[in-house]
Amino acid sequence: MKKTVFVTGAGGYIGRHAVKALCDRGARVLIPAHHAEAVDPRAERLDVDIFSGDPALFHRCGDPDVCLHLAWRDGFDHGSDAHVLELPQHYIFLRDLLHSGLGQLAVMGTMHELGAFEGEVGETSLGRPASPYAIAKAALRELCAYLCRESGAVFQWLRAYYVTGDEEHGRSVFARLLAADRRGEETFPLTSGTRRFDFLPVWELAQQLAAAVLQRQVQGVIECCSGRPVTLREETERLLRERGLHIRPVYGAYPEPPGPEAIWGSCEKIERILKGETGDDPSSSAGAVRPV
């Protein structure tokens, strides 16, 4: 049976790709109409404000089987006050959906919840968030886990790492490098580039998100990742080759900011999902791809 998925933040950097991946897998996708102009036309637009406090919001959202909650303001500005000030709105919205009958909640997480954690991250890894963004996300994770336990709903916390690709719509260091190349700049200053991160193209992340929410057996914290630590220098050089860029990175121009020397996710859960080893209807993971 076709699942109905309500996706918040559908017009965002990750959201647009997630909606397409869900539609490609045959899900019925519902999204708020606000800022949805560039979103896959197969998604149904609804005139809803997720932070309205409307007691009938669950029904106005189409009585979905799943809510994939991606909406989050100022995600690229980790010091913004909005992360903490708007946390209660996220809590109330998700609480009201669950109290109204939502049976499955999936929320976008971030490796920044772990702060300076070093090494491979798994479901039980503990860290110390070190910014308003990270603190608010970590708090939302615990609040959602509590709400889902109380309501008996399936809870999935989809933790992302360093997302690449579609740089024209992003604000990562790679987006800035491409913008500098388009301006005709000859060099681009970077850190030493020796730190290792878990990079994943946004379209592969979208496939992982779609596969995760279209099944119910694998729950809890799910690392959405490649499972491979790669240096920033290696990833930069790969981008230069693939895009045929002429700009020259200047490594060591900036000191390394505080943070781990290497952090990456465990693929154990997401590989089970992508392989279809969850006991769910195999049609929900049609077209799945393994992390590469």
What's the helix count? 9
User: How would you sum up the major sheet?
Assistant: 7 strands, parallel
Q: How many domain units?
A: 2
Would you report the number of β strands? Answer: 15
Report the end-to-end length measured between terminal Cα atoms: 30 Å
- Going by CATH, the homologous superfamily of the largest domain would be NAD(P)-binding Rossmann-like Domain
Content-based structural category:
alpha/beta
CATH class of the largest domain: Alpha Beta
Task: List the helices and strands in order.
Answer: EHEEHEHHEEHEEHEEEHEEHEEH
Computed over alpha carbons, the radius of gyration is: 19 Å
Shape designation: globular
Strand content: 15-25%
CATH architecture of the largest domain: 3-Layer(aba) Sandwich
Q: Tell me the strand order in the biggest sheet.
A: 3-2-1-4-5-7-12
Low-confidence stretches: 282-292
Share in helix: 25-40%
Q: Please tell me the overall pLDDT.
A: 92
Describe the model:
Helix 1 crosses helix 7 and helix 4 runs parallel beside helix 5. Helix content is 32%, strand content 20%. Strand 1, helix 1 (15-24) and strand 2 (28-32) form a beta-alpha-beta unit. The protein contains nine helices and 15 strands. The chain has two domains: 4-163 and 199-227 and 261-285, Rossmann fold (3-Layer(aba) Sandwich), CATH 3.40.50.720; 165-196 and 230-250, no CATH class. The protein has a seven-stranded parallel sheet with strand order 3-2-1-4-5-7-12, with helices on both faces. The chain has helices spanning 15-24, 57-60, 82-85, 87-99, 132-151, 173-182, 202-213, 232-243, 268-274, and strands spanning 4-8, 28-32, 44-46, 66-69, 104-110, 119-121, 154-160, 162-164, 187-189, 196-197, 199-201, 220-224, 230-231, 248-250, 263-265. With 292 residues, the protein is of the alpha/beta class.
